[in-house]
Design a protein that fits this description.
With about 250 residues, the protein is mainly alpha-helical. The protein is built from 14 helices and 3 strands.
């Protein structure tokens, strides 16, 4: 890999400059094989993947006026999830995401923005269903015109605060877009996303600005409130999700 400069984007994909992220902790990058490939090469490999139109992906994107909805001119491209996994971006024969999986992954924009600043990329499986599609599209709309949070970049904060990463990755703004897309396309949400929209309706989801502010007291307090609310309303929640895809049983 080319030597990473102090002011270059960190190879971990956080979007931060190397000097403010993993500089001095390069061994952590090595653990994930990230020293094997430069950010530029990573972006080129991803953006060179052929576009795919699995499921209703193209139909849904064509029905969205992203500029009007978010104010952004950035478009969306879909690539095959298995092909993305096969790029082996993280070394050691593992993609780190996607291999053997179904559904979709919003690829961290900081991996692709240099190679293609005009699009965000979503890797999707051939048999992706509508619920998985609108989940990833909601992440895109949330990033472009909502919380500005990119999935996969808040694990460290969640670990530091001792709260579920799902609470940080699915803020209020994401809940809005998820609800909007489900209604627009007539999609039955899976169990997990049904809970997210339920919490959105109850105005309990964390706000993007709160997550961006990284105030531990606020985030931990609101996360604990979510957990307490779900516990107190477990019967109601179970009734909501019992017949939804992904339901694994009460208290599981």
């Amino acid at each position: 890999m080319q030597k990473v400069g102090r002011n270059d984007p960190c190879p971990c994909g956080s979007g931060k400059k190397f000097k403010k992220c993993h500089m001095g902790r390069e061994h952590e990058l090595k653990l994930f094989g990230l020293e094997e490939i430069s950010v530029e090469e990573m972006g080129t490999r991803i953006t060179n993947l052929p576009a795919v139109h699995h499921g209703r992906s193209q139909e849904m994107v064509d029905a969205l006026d992203i500029k009007e909805m978010t104010g952004s001119d950035v478009g969306i491209k879909f690539v095959d999830l298995e092909s993305y996994a096969g790029l082996d971006l993280f070394g050691s024969g593992q993609s780190g995401a996607g291999r053997g999986r179904e559904g979709g992954i919003l690829i961290n924009i900081h991996k692709t923005i240099r190679a293609d600043p005009d699009h965000v990329y979503i890797a999707i499986s051939k048999n992706i269903d509508d619920a998985a599609l609108i989940h990833q599209l909601a992440h895109v709309l949330d990033y472009l015109g909502g919380s500005r949070l990119m999935p996969g970049t808040v694990e460290a904060l969640a670990y530091e605060l001792g709260i579920p990463v799902e609470h940080l990755e699915h803020p209020e703004e994401f809940g809005y877009w998820l609800s909007h897309l489900a209604e627009k396309f007539g999609v039955t949400l899976d169990a997990d996303d049904t809970i997210i929209t339920y919490l959105y309706q109850k105005e309990l989801l964390l706000k993007g600005r709160e997550i961006q502010g990284k105030n531990g007291f606020i985030l931990k307090s609101k996360s604990d409130r979510i957990l307490s609310f779900l516990k107190e309303h477990s019967e109601e929640v179970d009734t909501l999700i019992r017949n939804r895809p992904g339901y694994i049983g009460k208290g599981a």
